[in-house]
């Protein structure tokens, strides 16, 4: 009831106030006609006839039937946007059919329905569904904010269950929303929970226009004209270049804001430029895609300046041009064309016509001075626009397109002194048309913060004291050799490449990497001062790693081979690399440069492997390449041994700011907490100087000193300790405190537990972020207590495995495993699998105290909750009833209807049922997947010969197995899937099913998961 009062009802009230009509579930059911259908038929037919002049009732019925069978989210998206036509009764050719009137929002019909039950193999009830013209576009999962389980992701789990179990509701879905009445998050159809995000900025309104956050959030996402804008222009499907999968993406609030500011400026017609700073890692390339999409289609507005403009997207580097081009093409933007040559670009730009999208580099305009006649119909989007003004490139561009509109994009702030960029891309008196800075991205979780630490000062190089440093590092050389080196010129690079210095730093890098990155599978870049230092670092690091691996028992040859594979070098080739030299040192370096140089394909392969989930390579050593435009989310640390300034520094360090979650070998995930810059050259000793050319507010948190994290650790430890004391947990061991908190929660003190949990998580996370810093040593004992307590308390309260443990870094988890064994808590904390020989020990109830029985029930319920959830994910038809039964037993125990001993007996019976089900396929001589298909068919066939049913299930299984073998990506191919559906329908025909199409669709939903996973 509290979910309804605190979340559902307020959401319904807000939506009705915005113009939605609330339908009673029974009224909506009558419009749907059948419980397994999701369209409001009468509303859709009425809307179709109102929006399409002359459309008859027969045609409207046919369109409804057509849409009812459409089972592809991307195709739905295209049809909703207007890419839908069909031959109507009496017509000679196909005619466009509008499903939504985007330009006149008030001509559409808006409904909201609560408790929408959709029947399927596993029927589900969605809390709230938002309909436009009878089409379900948004699903809202409303959760009570007072339930601990909901704070740990249950709402997201339910959305995932709905997407899997009642996919029909999500075929037309634009996005989904999760809210507890206070916090609201939204995410694209099929998106993992980590990609759900808030919408904090209600631009163009101000926050004080709204009475509370829920009203603001639902207005931002669901106010009718904004929802239509989102649907029309801010959803794309991008093809992942590595997996080939289509990934649906919905814009973030800063992208929506920036695009609409730019489009409004074009539509208004008087202002012709704007500068957009969206910090690196926050989706700048997608912002350009959304802008091009809205400029191109502008479904929600009319303006003479938007009739059919040409769009030119420019970068200043070939690799960025390719990156942007791939993004545009992957997102399916209409007709983007990459102009590869100067002649091709000039011909395309000068050609009459409209509606084109060109992608190229700024250098194609070099020397171009003659204006083209139709330049007023061009809109130019310039990426990294601060770099395009040198050498008159900006002048040549504007000479060619004098009347065009110009929008500049940058991933780094513009320098205070950079008058050219502001003059060329900003209106008078304006700096940024839209700004999404470093702090904004970190606050929203779009990027992670970047921490920096300077290593030993004797390794850093102060250019003002370079002669003194030379004498110190080269003291062992003879006077004659020292004098020779001095005559060549004492340079920073000369000192930086001293073999002993590189050897010491290489050892430090490996020790730091082992403690910071390796336990969780993250990776690192080493930025060396020049190409020679790249190969010097490579050799030194390989020696250090090989020696360490040898100490751990690996044969020397194998250790060196492994060390070599862990390192890759990426640099450009020079002409001199192939020249012979009489100087043995120079000749040696040239040989190594040739040996480790990667051609274009090899470099692509190495970058792909670096981004992958294997550890080879773990290090990329570079000097100039990959410091801009290279996105590897799993890069955690940059070891910096090259002096960088201003844009170079900001762009380089941003390689580490991408968010990333890495799946561990035990199936759990660890999130990257931050990026890390380890400075050996001394850049960060003079950070203020390095960034002094920017406005202070633009770069004040570009890098965060570890001293701030040390202070944060002390403060959060103090706050956690105080809350623990206030709750009466002082002096208790972890287990005693966990059961004490369970009692407090049952007595109504959930808020105290939430606050303790929040502070505890922050304390453990901050400790982990600092490790291996010596500052953590004073807090290690309390960290172990806190982490173990949180895990135990989560088990006791929610009968589930603690999310805290699952998201800890590997170094912390290893420490905790040792700790729980030392304290005798292993059997309480560690959840065992049903196949574990000791799994059934808890079912022995004789001779156990009430406390021991309670503990056994908590652990067993948590284990079976996890076991059944994992089983249901693989096969809902087989294991759905077991999952529901576990939850029912837990509910009865928590409500005092059964004692712990009785609950354990029920869980024991349930375990037997799960084991019997797991082995049932063997008894029938079937494989697991064919048996799962049999289970899907059984409820629909009550009187058929079971042997016949088995035979059909085996044939259907073989059909999908062949598809997987012959065409591994069959589940992405609509035509192939349609062919498979026809074949399945034929195989089902002998069973004489009333609802054969429903069974066929349920089998396909299962097969897409089971047979794709087998690949």
From TrEMBL:
GO terms for MF: ATP binding; DNA binding; type I site-specific deoxyribonuclease activity
Stretches of the chain forming a coiled coil according to its record: none
Gene Ontology BP annotations: DNA restriction-modification system
Keywords from the named record: ATP-binding, DNA-binding, Endonuclease, Hydrolase, Nuclease, Nucleotide-binding, Restriction system
InterPro entries listed in its UniProt record: Helicase_ATP-bd (IPR014001), HsdR_RecA-like_helicase_dom_2 (IPR055180), P-loop_NTPase (IPR027417), Restrct_endonuc_type1_HsdR_N (IPR007409), Restrct_endonuc_typeI_HsdR (IPR004473), SWI2_SNF2 (IPR040980), T1RH-like_C (IPR021810), Type-I_R_enzyme_R_subunit (IPR051268)
CDD domains with a match to the protein in the record: DEXHc_RE_I_HsdR (cd18030), HsdR_N (cd22332), SF2_C_EcoR124I-like (cd18800)
Keyword DNA-binding in annotation: yes
Assembly, per entry: The type I restriction/modification system is composed of three polypeptides R, M and S.
Protein family: Belongs to the HsdR family.
Role this protein plays: Subunit R is required for both nuclease and ATPase activities, but not for modification.
Name of the protein described by the UniProt record: Type I restriction enzyme endonuclease subunit
Organismal lineage: Bacteria, Pseudomonadati, Pseudomonadota, Alphaproteobacteria, Hyphomicrobiales
């Amino acid at each position: 009831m509290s979910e309804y009062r605190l979340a559902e009802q307020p959401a319904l009230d807000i939506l009705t106030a915005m113009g939605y009509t609330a339908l009673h579930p029974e009224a909506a059911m009558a419009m749907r006609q059948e419980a397994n259908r999701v369209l409001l038929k009468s509303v859709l037919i009425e809307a179709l006839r109102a929006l399409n002049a002359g459309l008859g009732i027969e045609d409207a019925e046919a369109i409804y039937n057509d849409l009812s069978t459409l089972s592809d989210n991307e195709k739905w998206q295209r049809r909703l946007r207007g890419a839908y036509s069909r031959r109507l009764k009496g017509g000679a050719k196909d005619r466009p059919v509008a499903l939504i009137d985007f330009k006149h929002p008030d001509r559409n019909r808006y409904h909201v329905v609560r408790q929408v039950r959709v029947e399927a193999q596993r029927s589900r009830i969605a809390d709230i569904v938002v309909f436009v013209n009878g089409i379900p576009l948004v699903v809202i999962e409303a959760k009570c904010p007072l339930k601990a389980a909901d704070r740990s992701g249950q709402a997201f789990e339910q959305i995932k269950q709905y997407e899997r179990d009642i996919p029909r509701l999500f075929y037309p879905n634009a996005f989904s929303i999760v809210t507890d009445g206070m916090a609201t998050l939204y995410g694209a159809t099929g998106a993992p929970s980590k990609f759900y995000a808030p919408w904090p900025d209600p631009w163009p309104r101000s926050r004080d226009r709204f009475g509370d956050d829920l009203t603001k959030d639902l207005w931002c996402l669901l106010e009718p004209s904004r929802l239509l804008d989102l649907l029309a222009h801010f959803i794309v499907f991008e093809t992942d270049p590595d997996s080939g999968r289509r990934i649906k993406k919905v814009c973030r609030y800063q992208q929506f804001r920036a695009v609409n500011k730019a489009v409004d400026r074009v539509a208004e017609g008087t202002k012709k430029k704007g500068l957009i700073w969206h910090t690196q890692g926050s989706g700048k390339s997608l912002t350009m895609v959304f802008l091009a999409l809205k400029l191109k289609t502008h479904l929600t507005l009319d303006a003479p300046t938007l009739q059919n403009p040409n769009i030119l997207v420019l970068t200043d580097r070939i690799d960025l041009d390719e990156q942007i081009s791939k993004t545009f093409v992957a997102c399916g933007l209409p007709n983007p064309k990459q102009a590869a040559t100067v002649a091709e670009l000039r011909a395309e730009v000068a050609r009459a016509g409209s509606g084109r999208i060109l992608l190229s580099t700024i250098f194609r305009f070099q020397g171009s001075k003659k204006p083209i006649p139709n330049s007023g119909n061009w809109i130019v989007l310039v990426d990294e626009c601060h770099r395009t003004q040198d050498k008159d490139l900006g002048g040549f561009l504007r000479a060619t397109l004098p009347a065009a509109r110009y929008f500049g994009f940058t991933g780094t702030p513009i320098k205070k002194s950079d008058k050219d960029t502001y003059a060329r891309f900003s209106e008078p008196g304006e700096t940024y048309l839209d700004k999404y800075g470093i702090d904004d991205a970190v606050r929203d979780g779009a990027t992670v913060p970047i921490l920096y630490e300077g290593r030993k000062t004797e390794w850093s190089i102060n250019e003002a004291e370079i002669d003194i440093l030379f004498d110190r590092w080269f003291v062992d050389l003879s006077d004659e050799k020292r004098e020779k080196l001095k005559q060549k010129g004492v340079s920073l690079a000369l000192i930086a490449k001293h073999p002993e210095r590189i050897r010491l730093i290489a050892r430090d890098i490996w020790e730091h990497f082992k403690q910071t990155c390796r336990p969780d599978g993250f990776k690192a870049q080493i930025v060396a001062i020049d190409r020679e230092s790249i190969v010097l670092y490579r050799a030194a690091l390989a020696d250090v790693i090989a020696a360490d691996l040898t100490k751990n028992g690996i044969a020397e040859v194998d250790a060196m081979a492994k060390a070599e594979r862990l390192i890759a070098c990426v640099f450009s080739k020079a002409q001199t690399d192939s020249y012979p030299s009489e100087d043995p040192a120079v000749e040696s370096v040239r040989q190594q440069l040739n040996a480790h140089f990667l051609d274009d394909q090899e470099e692509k392969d190495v970058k792909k492997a670096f981004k992958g989930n294997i550890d080879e390579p773990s290090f990329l050593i570079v000097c100039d390449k990959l410091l801009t435009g290279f996105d590897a989310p799993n890069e955690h640390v940059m070891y910096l041994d090259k002096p960088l300034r201003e844009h170079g520094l900001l762009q380089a360090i941003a390689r580490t700011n991408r968010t990333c979650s890495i799946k561990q070998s035990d199936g759990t995930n660890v999130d990257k907490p931050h990026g890390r810059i380890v400075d050996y050259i001394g850049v960060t000793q003079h950070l203020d100087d390095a960034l002094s050319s920017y406005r202070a507010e633009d770069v004040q948190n570009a890098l965060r000193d570890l001293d701030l994290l040390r202070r944060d650790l002390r403060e959060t430890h103090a706050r956690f300790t105080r809350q623990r004391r206030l709750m009466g947990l002082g002096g208790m061991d972890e287990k005693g405190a966990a059961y004490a908190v369970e009692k407090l929660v049952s007595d109504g003190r959930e808020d105290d537990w939430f606050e303790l949990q929040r502070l505890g998580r922050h304390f453990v996370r901050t400790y982990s972020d600092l490790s291996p810093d010596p500052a953590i040593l004073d807090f290690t004992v309390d960290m172990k207590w806190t982490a173990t307590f949180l895990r135990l308390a989560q088990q006791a309260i929610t009968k589930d495995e603690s999310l805290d443990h699952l998201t800890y870094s590997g170094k912390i988890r290893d420490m905790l495993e040792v700790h729980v064994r030392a304290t005798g808590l292993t059997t309480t904390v560690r959840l065992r699998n049903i196949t574990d020989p000791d799994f059934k020990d808890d079912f022995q109830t004789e001779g156990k105290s009430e406390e021991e029985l309670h503990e056994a029930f908590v652990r067993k319920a948590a284990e079976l909750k996890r076991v059944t959830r994992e089983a249901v994910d693989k096969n809902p038809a087989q294991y759905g009833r077991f999952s529901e039964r576990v939850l029912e037993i837990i509910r009865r125990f928590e409500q005092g209807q059964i004692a712990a001993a009785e609950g354990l007996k029920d869980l024991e019976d349930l375990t037997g049922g799960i084991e019997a089900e797991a082995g049932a396929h063997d008894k029938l001589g079937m494989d697991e997947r064919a048996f799962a298909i049999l289970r899907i068919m059984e409820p629909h066939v009550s009187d058929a010969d079971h042997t016949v049913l088995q035979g059909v299930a085996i044939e259907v299984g073989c059909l999908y197995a062949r598809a997987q073998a012959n065409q591994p990506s069959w589940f992405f191919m609509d035509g192939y899937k349609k062919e498979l559906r026809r074949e399945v329908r034929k195989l089902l025909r002998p069973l004489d099913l009333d609802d054969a199409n429903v069974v066929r669709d349920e089998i396909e939903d299962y097969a897409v998961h089971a047979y794709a996973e087998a690949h």
